Amino acid sequence: MGLRPATDIMKVTLGLGGNYLLCSSCRKEASKLVKEQTNTSDDPNVDASDHEDDSSDNNENNDGADSDSNTTATDLPCKSSFFNNKYRKAQKHYSDCLDMIICETPSVQCYLGGCNNCPGVDELSNILLTCFENQEIENITYKYWISKPISSLETFIKPTEEFVENFCSELKVLLPHSFVAKEQAKFLKTLKETLKPNEFVIICDFAENYAFVVQNAASGFHWNNNQATVFPVVIYYKVNDELEHKSLVIISDCNNHDAVAVHVFIKLITDYVKSLPERCKKIYYFSDGAPQQSKNFKKFVNLYYHEDDFYIPAEWHFSATAHGKGPCDGIGGIIKRHAARASLQLAVDKQITTPIEFFEWASNPNNLPNIIVKFSPEEDYNTALTDFNDRFLKTKPIEKTVGQNFSSESMILNKKNPFLNFKVLNKEKIFSGPSE
């Protein structure tokens, strides 16, 4: 495939920097674009060179390439530098491909599949197929996550047509997910910046359980499954218009990670919030959407009774799927890493081997001075499980809440309104609340 230098007008039109060598097909496409945008064919470098045959290009290619060490040889279509105003920039990230399949000025409906004016994946598919054809690529080797029955990263070799079809199909699935993730992250950022006095943002999640480690342990200790639950929390609030935060970790000997456990931990969190000088008037909770802990009817009904239980109104917001990592995960990692290191260094009679010993070590201000540590005994969980039994029996489950992505207004509940009123991807839904 012969290469010739790009003319100055081509560089300006295509937004190229530096010196580029273009193949004959690229130069022809570039020439067409130059004519379309300038309404002229007076550039001798455009017409004269771009209608020569490929053999002429081949004869001149080596001399041109060797004469200038700063010249970059490139095949523009194969780098996906597309020949129109919208796609001048090389596509280096999946988000660039997402931009190609929606309107130039996208609305919410463009991301959610409700716009009839979006170009869709056809144009992107044709461009990719042209790229591979120009490069004479017949098969594509790539890695892909398979989640059934377990998640694994597997390698596939597919013909270019099948790869492009699969890629474009996955882009359509990714588009609304990417939009929801960005909107929810934007909402959290904006909320922290505009937080009112006496309002608190609480980000919480279960960390992976802490497994105890002991120096010079007997070989059978490897099979010891004793663990401690770790529930890290980061609390944001404003003092004199400055955003402050507190780090809190709840340690428990109860290994049940469900809505009841979360409610028990919220009791400790709200008690701590009430102890702060700033009087709390409202709480915004943020967490991932794990079905066992968050997106289930028990969680929703507990949120419904939040103001009755803790005397503070609250909202609960869920992150997009696979985007639940936050500052609380860092807090959980810190406390477990420091505890493991300390346990390996402590004397035999002071090693950390139980949840209560873990709590006693972590609550020592000399060990973790910037983290507040609370302990939640299993007895509190068992008591709550019994107390909430009637509450759960009176509640009708809401179907398909696990698979829904809620907007920023979602899950705003109070006792004055006997209905759950929230929005799911711009569609309002109303469900009956718990019967009294």
Strand count, sense and barrel status of the largest sheet are: 7 strands, mixed
Outline type = elongated
Q: Tally the helices.
A: 15
- Terminal CA distance reads 77 Å
Mean pLDDT: 78
CATH fold call of the largest domain: Nucleotidyltransferase, domain 5
Roughly what fraction of the amino acids lie in strands? 15-25%
User: Which structural category fits the helices and strands?
Assistant: alpha/beta
Backbone CA Rg? 30 Å
Number of domains: 3
CATH class of the largest domain: Alpha Beta
| Low-pLDDT residue intervals, each spanning 5 or more residues | 41-90, 405-436
Level of helix content? Answer: 25-40%
Which H/E pattern describes the elements? EHEHHHEHHHEEHEEEEHEHHEHHEHHEE
What is the level-2 CATH architecture name of the largest domain? Answer: 2-Layer Sandwich
**Strand tally, please?**
14
Keywords:
single chain; about 425 residues; alpha/beta; Nucleotidyltransferase, domain 5; 3 domains; seven-stranded mixed β-sheet; three-stranded mixed β-sheet; 15 helices; disordered C terminus
Description:
The protein is of the alpha/beta class. The protein folds into three domains: 1-76, no CATH class; 91-179, no CATH class; 195-432, Nucleotidyltransferase, domain 5. The protein is built from 15 helices and 14 strands. It has helices at residues 8-14, 24-38, 44-50, 54-67, 94-100, 108-112, 122-134, 160-193, 259-275, 297-304, 306-310, 327-345, 355-362, 378-387, 389-393, and strands spanning 3-5, 19-23, 71-73, 139-146, 152-159, 199-204, 210-211, 227-239, 242-252, 282-287, 314-318, 371-376, 419-424, 427-432. Strands 6, 7, 8, 9, 10, 11 and 12 form a seven-stranded mixed sheet that branches. A three-stranded mixed sheet has the order 1-2-3. Helix 7 (122-134) packs across helix 8 (160-193) and helix 9 crosses helix 14 (378-387). The longest helix has 34 residues, at 160-193. The radius of gyration is 30 Å and the shape is elongated. Residues 41-90 and 405-436 have low confidence and may be disordered. Residues 34-73 are annotated as: Disordered. Residues 58-70 have a biased composition (Low complexity).
